[in-house]
Amino acid sequence: MKEDSAKEQRILDTAAELFSRQPFHKVLLSDVARAAAVGKGTLYLYFKSKDDLYFAVLFREFSTLIDSMRRFLDENALGPGEQLAGVVRILAEHFHTTSFNMELLGSVITCPVTDEWKQLRADLWDLFARIIRRGIDKGVFRDEAPDLTARYISGLVRAVCLFAPANADLDSVCRHASGFVLRGLALER
Amino acid sequence: MKEDSAKEQRILDTAAELFSRQPFHKVLLSDVARAAAVGKGTLYLYFKSKDDLYFAVLFREFSTLIDSMRRFLDENALGPGEQLAGVVRILAEHFHTTSFNMELLGSVITCPVTDEWKQLRADLWDLFARIIRRGIDKGVFRDEAPDLTARYISGLVRAVCLFAPANADLDSVCRHASGFVLRGLALER
Amino acid sequence: MKEDSAKEQRILDTAAELFSRQPFHKVLLSDVARAAAVGKGTLYLYFKSKDDLYFAVLFREFSTLIDSMRRFLDENALGPGEQLAGVVRILAEHFHTTSFNMELLGSVITCPVTDEWKQLRADLWDLFARIIRRGIDKGVFRDEAPDLTARYISGLVRAVCLFAPANADLDSVCRHASGFVLRGLALER
Amino acid sequence: MKEDSAKEQRILDTAAELFSRQPFHKVLLSDVARAAAVGKGTLYLYFKSKDDLYFAVLFREFSTLIDSMRRFLDENALGPGEQLAGVVRILAEHFHTTSFNMELLGSVITCPVTDEWKQLRADLWDLFARIIRRGIDKGVFRDEAPDLTARYISGLVRAVCLFAPANADLDSVCRHASGFVLRGLALER
DNA sequence: AATGAATGAGATTTCATTCAT
DNA sequence: AATGAATGAAATCTCATTCAT
């Protein structure tokens, strides 16, 4: 059925763009089709339904994000604090460019609970948890429940981006968010 | 138009319940009407449109929340740290009982930009900012941008509640969230 | 939900008309709606789906037919031969006015196998079987398997109507069909 | 256009199978293509349209049937009664194996009125009419309108097969149908 | 000749909103 | 004020047909 993966990507790109600008029910599949320059039926060649498309967008967005965080960590030999600041920055950029309409992990309630999704979520949390634990091991962080903290760092960053003053530049928002997270993990001295 | 305020409240209660369990587009006005035990047309006596109802729910929910935080602060003579822990707890309870589907400040979901809404938002942020500034004045907090921090504390708490493990009890989640925020505001010693 | 039974009947009338002139997939619900002078959504107030509407038409058509045959039998004190000729005539008129596109019993395969439908089918067959058995009892018919015969008399009449020459008048077609059926049940003398 | 006649036959076989099990609009060309193990586009090399394919199936089915009846008559020197019983049996077998969804002569389902089709229909009717007339000539049948009778014998047999009890075996159904037809043509003695 | 991805007209269905009662 | 049947615009989705490969 699928053959032209480039087309699938184009559809996903377009849909991502539209879903990020409007709530789900205001995004029309005819708009997606037109904007992606494909026939309406073509959408259904690649995606079972509007919901399916929506979650595919979310999934890809999410995967990409995790990949780029991983790459950042792999390609730079940094200390835990710098690592955390770095991934927070990547997250913030993601939320800044991509939409806030898309809850990063999908609403927990609505988004599919397939193994794929569970894995993705676990991956994100694991990524943060590793950084935190490494920091603890190195004696620079302190956290009684790293797994819990890991779970909501992304939500925290989202909140920062979402509610930052309209005129705030990304840099200062990031700096503030990172600072906050880092102090939250700071050793009591 | 409006006359029977009890009925209006019943509609709001019902709608709050439903909107909190499902995304906007899955909540049908016929469901709301049935659950509220009123005719579908009656909804339109009290609310201009589905959007209007949605935002009315949000507004009331939000106002109630702010009120209860204010009351908590007024009725208890506490230090800044305890104040913060207290309002975090109230927030967490709110997110726990009420829905995660309703973005608290809905700033992106293009919620109305009337003066009413601006005021409400300002009130919430101001509430947090005051606590933080009071802490700074008292020499127990440290924050370079209290207004910025104030803006995303609610988002942080939401994230914590949203992504806490299903089996986590509210108490430990609150404790963790408060601890995190408080350390984020801690003086460097 | 339903209140206006007259409207439901109008929809059924219209649909019967259209389904009788064209095969299922050429009958558009927008045509039905327009012809019945109701909104497209109204159809769904009374019928769950296009299939549902189709079978409702069939069911009513069928019930009406059985009723008129029953009434004919009740209101006229006739001998078995005359009874048979009469109901054949009624059947033929039905097929003549109503459509041939609608298989009287619905395609056995496709049409719902609810109790309602089973009952209706049983009623028709019973009606014929009674006449035949009465004829046997009175010594004017002969049939080794009245129940089997009863099952296909309606199909036979349909076939006669369906394949009669275009210019044949209803009377002669009926006469021939009745004659054929009656001889088929005739005593060997 | 057509070249590979074996492939064409395979398509026809497959389509016959599918059309016989479901009504026209439930048979998808993609199903036909998949089941026939050809590409969807290939169907269009052999048939102009879905309708065209449908009628081609019908035509072939019908021709085969007439051929086998003719062969039966040619290869066996039988009296009119035996001839009739024989062709009824062939018809019944046809309806039993092939579908009831395909109206044999499809006269209403606006099947093409080409000379080919007129001829085919005429052939079937003629075949029956000849048998009946031969019976009349031989003094064993009696029928005032053999042409009319000829027209609906096939419909009668179809009805018998269609509505016979599910557990009835073909033999007894045939015997009953033949008996009915033969008595319908019986001399009044 | 053969394919099946792509198409888009048009099908069914939904649901916020209206309005006669 | 209250209703819910009626509406129809607009949404999702289907599928016969085309066409580039």
From TrEMBL, chains A, B, C, D:
Keywords: DNA-binding, Transcription, Transcription regulation. InterPro entries: Homeodomain-like_sf (IPR009057), HTH-type_TetR-like_transc_reg (IPR050109), HTH_TetR (IPR001647), KstR2_TetR_C (IPR041490), Tet_transcr_reg_TetR-rel_C_sf (IPR036271). It holds the Pfam family TetR_C_24. Residues 5-65 form the HTH tetR-type domain. It comes from the Bacteria. GO terms for molecular function: DNA-binding transcription factor activity; transcription cis-regulatory region binding. Residues 28-47 bind DNA. SUPFAM superfamilies: Homeodomain-like (SSF46689), Tetracyclin repressor-like, C-terminal domain (SSF48498). This is Fatty acid metabolism regulator protein. It comes from Pseudodesulfovibrio hydrargyri. The gene is fadR_1.
